[in-house]
Specification:
Blueprint lengths: L1 H33 L31 H21 L5 H4 L11 E11 L2 E10 L3 E14 L7 E15 L6 E24 L2 E27 L4 E23 L5 H5 L2 H19 L2 E11 L2
Antiparallel strand pairs: 1-2, 1-8, 2-3, 3-4, 4-5, 5-6, 6-7, 7-8
């Protein structure tokens, strides 16, 4: 019976061999479809990348960095600081500001008073324009009297002045170079006993004389003027008065009208008049120092 079973076994083996070959052929074809072809060396097109089906992560689900947290905190702090400043509570920066720095405001105007020579006490009005320029309008007044004994019984001196000053601050600070233009009135009064001889008789009397000088002057000067944020100011100045366009007058009269003509005709009176006129003319043309020891005031 073996000769009957042999053909059946050979037929089964042949069918199994065909099925195995078809199975491996299909698997090889599927693998060849998934293989990425190598990128040609001289191709103009980029290689095709395999598709990734994974879903992109949501940024809100990712952990935040320290820089992002600090940035958010800074924005919150800035908002709070602005709100506090609006409500008038102030901020830490406001507390750290310097309390009183000179020359903060651009425009200031106010009164000052000075202790100076030759005017002793002088009021003025000062005006600052920014940090580079300032100006002022001042008045000067001086009165004094002295008894010189035999030469003059009493001499009274009165000085009145008014000027306008312009200053330039080259370093945008307190130091300045200035120029003043003004007018000066100088009045000198004196009394002296005078004698005259009339008809071999000596007559004496007191003659009152008065001299007036009017002049214009220019005063270049240097100085220091500090103006604080609060408004308080102080300074000092040093310069020189140069008079120009001066004129003078002289008059004299005897206290006793009956002796006026007699005393004025005497040689002693004529010498006295000439000496006084020369002194007055010299004063009107003499340059004198200008010293402002201290200027204090308040500018608004």
């Amino acid at each position: 019976m073996w000769h009957k079973a042999l053909p059946v076994s050979l037929a089964g083996l042949w069918i199994s061999t065909i099925s195995w070959g078809e199975t491996h052929s299909a698997a090889g074809t599927a693998e060849s479809e998934n293989v990425v072809e190598p990128y040609p060396l001289f191709s103009d097109e980029p290689p095709a990348l395999p598709m990734i089906d994974e879903k992109a992560p949501d940024p809100s689900d990712m952990p935040r960095s320290i820089m992002e947290i600090d940035s958010e905190n800074a924005e919150v702090n800035g908002t709070v600081a602005k709100e506090n400043q609006r409500l008038g509570e102030g901020t830490e920066g406001d507390m750290n500001e310097e309390p009183d720095k000179p020359r903060q405001k651009q425009w200031r105007l106010g009164p000052t008073i000075s202790l100076s020579f030759p005017y002793f006490i002088s009021p003025s009005v000062e005006w600052t324009v920014g940090k580079s320029f300032s100006a002022g309008l001042g008045l000067g007044n001086l009165k004094m009297s002295k008894d010189f004994g035999n030469s003059f019984e009493k001499v009274e001196l009165k000085v009145n002045s008014r000027d306008v000053r312009f200053r330039y601050h080259p370093f945008r600070g307190d130091f300045f170079m200035g120029l003043a233009l003004g007018a000066l009135d100088l009045n000198v009064k004196g009394k002296k006993k005078t004698t005259a001889e009339v008809d071999n008789q000596t007559t004496s009397g007191v003659v009152a004389s008065e001299s007036q000088i009017k002049s214009r002057y220019v005063t270049p000067h240097l100085g220091w003027l500090s103006v604080y944020e609060s408004g308080f100011c102080f300074g000092f100045e040093l310069g020189y008065h140069f008079p120009y366009q001066s004129s003078s007058t002289y008059s004299a009269n005897a206290q006793d009208p009956n002796l006026d003509s007699v005393l004025k005709s005497s040689s002693e009176f004529q010498e006295q008049k000439k000496d006084l006129e020369d002194i007055v003319k010299k004063l009107g043309k003499t340059a004198i120092p200008y010293v402002n020891l201290l200027r204090i005031g308040w500018l608004f």
